[in-house]
Amino acid sequence: MRSEETDKEQRIIRLFHQGDASAMDLLYTDYAGYLTGVGFRYISDDDDLKDVLQESFIKIFTCINSFTYRGKGSLKAWMTRIVINESLQFLRRQQASQIVRMDDLDLPDMAEEEPDLTGLSADSLSEMIRHLPPGCREVFNLYAVEGKSHIEIARLLNIKPDTSASQFHRARAILARMIRKYQLKKARE
């Protein structure tokens, strides 16, 4: 039995191959929200995010005829990679990939314990991730969300694997502090 998503992906690809103008509208309608969420994890400014998404959709629309369907979810995965790559390129152009030094962070010594996420919505957590310093945010998303190794991240960002691991550690520490502040604020309300 073929799933609705597979049928949807195959239909969109077929429409593009046939030169049907409705293919762009269908792809945009079905995937714009998801791809915005992907970009949101990397780009903190809404106007910049719109620019990155525009560039991403241009690339998707111009390159889709060279895309090869490889099964359920392959179109979505291909478009996700495009948005991530466009986001990283944007950040490089904006020189936002600056490595954060521990001395610059004003972080207290923190135990390696995981913060309690009880009562924390996915939207609140996403917003906190969005406010991480750019270098930490990039590494955190690539490692924790996209599942890349520190070696892969190092290649993508042109940094050392140890730097990637360090940035991830810092991102977790900053997030833990943000979560604790959020929880204290909620407890007082």
Automatic annotation (TrEMBL):
Q: Which residues form the RNA polymerase sigma factor 70 region 4 type domain?
A: 124-173
Q: Which UniProt keywords apply?
A: Sigma factor, Transcription, Transcription regulation
List residues of the RNA polymerase sigma-70 region domain: 27-95
The answer on whether this UniProt entry bears the keyword Transcription regulation reads yes
Q: Where are the transmembrane segments?
A: none
Query: Record keywords: Ligase included?
Result: no
Pfam annotation, one family: Sigma70_r2
Matching InterPro entries, A to Z? Answer: RNA_pol_sigma-70-like, RNA_pol_sigma-70_dom, RNA_pol_sigma70_r2, RNA_pol_sigma70_r4_t2, RNA_pol_sigma_r2, RNA_pol_sigma_r3/r4-like, WH-like_DNA-bd_sf
Task: Please give the PANTHER family that the UniProt record associates with this protein.
Answer: RNA POLYMERASE ECF-TYPE SIGMA FACTO, RNA POLYMERASE SIGMA-70 FACTOR ECF SUBFAMILY
Family under the similarity heading = Belongs to the sigma-70 factor family. ECF subfamily.
Q: What is this protein called?
A: RNA polymerase sigma factor
Q: What is the lineage of its organism?
A: Bacteria, Pseudomonadati, Bacteroidota, Bacteroidia, Bacteroidales
